[in-house]
């Protein structure tokens, strides 16, 4: 006896998940995960300040010219992904959307890894980001205090390095500023 075919998830399915959860649609499957841990949120918040200030708002003499968002819903084909941070060059960011999701491919995506999402982030979501042409991808591990930086070249991810601890680093596509990585970690 064969199993009944699974119903492909649609955007309206996201309205039925509990408020304390995050929902994504990956390759037709509804994925529901709990809200992130305090370490995860600290890393996301700190990075948003470090990058968003100079690149989104031009603070501290930064270059500006970007829109940086925390946990945006991004439609890539039939997939609805919710990265921890995403950025678009301002001239590419949609001025008006008739729906909750953004349907313009971001120039940069950052996934802050947690034990429940790391495998999915590094496999399924990484492949989707490449398939749709996201230019840069970062994976940040707040437990091991590392940042993996990738650039998309000819539809393949190229590692630009792994940085961590209390390093001060200039990371693509935001290499005009130096980021003190020690500021990203929630440490005792």
How would you describe this structure to a colleague?
- The chain has 188 residues and is of the alpha+beta class.
- It has one domain (36-184): tt1808, chain A (Alpha-Beta Complex), CATH 3.90.1570.
- Helices cover 18% and strands 32% of the residues.
- The chain is built from two helices and twelve strands.
- It has helices at residues 38-56, 118-131, and strands spanning 21-26, 29-34, 66-70, 74-76, 79-81, 85-89, 108-112, 136-141, 146-153, 156-164, 168-169, 179-180.
- Strands 3-6-7-8-9-10 form a six-stranded mixed beta sheet, with helices on both faces. Strands 1-2 form a two-stranded antiparallel sheet.
- A hairpin with a 2-residue loop joins strand 9 and strand 10.
- The termini are far apart.
């Amino acid at each position: 006896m064969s199993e009944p075919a699974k119903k492909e998830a649609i955007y309206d399915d996201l309205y039925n998940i509990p408020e304390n959860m995050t929902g994504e649609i990956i390759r037709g499957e509804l994925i529901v995960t709990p809200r992130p841990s305090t370490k995860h949120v600290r890393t996301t918040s700190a990075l948003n300040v470090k990058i968003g200030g100079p690149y989104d708002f031009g603070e501290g003499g930064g270059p500006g010219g970007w829109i940086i968002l925390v946990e945006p819903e991004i439609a890539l084909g039939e997939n609805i992904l919710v990265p921890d941070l995403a950025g678009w060059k301002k001239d590419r960011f949609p001025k008006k959307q008739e729906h909750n999701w953004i349907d313009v491919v971001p120039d940069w995506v950052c996934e802050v890894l947690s034990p429940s999402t790391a495998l999915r982030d590094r496999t399924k979501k990484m492949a989707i980001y490449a398939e749709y042409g996201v230019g840069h991808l970062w994976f940040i591990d707040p437990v091991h205090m590392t940042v993996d930086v990738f650039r998309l070249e000819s539809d393949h991810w190229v590692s630009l390095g792994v940085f961590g601890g209390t390093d001060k680093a200039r990371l693509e596509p935001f290499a005009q500023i130096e980021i003190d990585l020690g500021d990203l970690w929630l440490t005792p």
